[in-house]
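User: Please predict the structure of the protein below. I'd like the answer in structure-token form so I can feed it into my own downstream comparison script.

Assistant: Understood. Taking the following sequence of 98 residues as input:
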Amino acid sequence: MNENEISGKIIGEAIKIHRSLGPGLLESAYKECLFYNLLKTGLSVEKEKSMPFVFEEVKLDCGYRIDLLLENKVVIEIKSVEALNDVFMAQTLTYLKL
């Protein structure tokens, strides 16, 4: 399955969850629901995937965690906020770099 097909499934499940639950819940609630629904589709899903930080050839556990990683191809960073800002994009780009 390619990234576009995976993304289509993710968006479909996210919309179902949002229609069912609406806004206002914690990110953790949306993450658990999306994790559950994506597992039901048969996709490989990892939750809270640890991302080691490498500094001067030493791996450091700094607590970086990807919310959901699908098929080892697609990173999902869940936000439950009124508006997105640049720091959220920077966070996601950091995960891709790591």
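That's the full token string. DSSP finds three helices and five strands in the chain.
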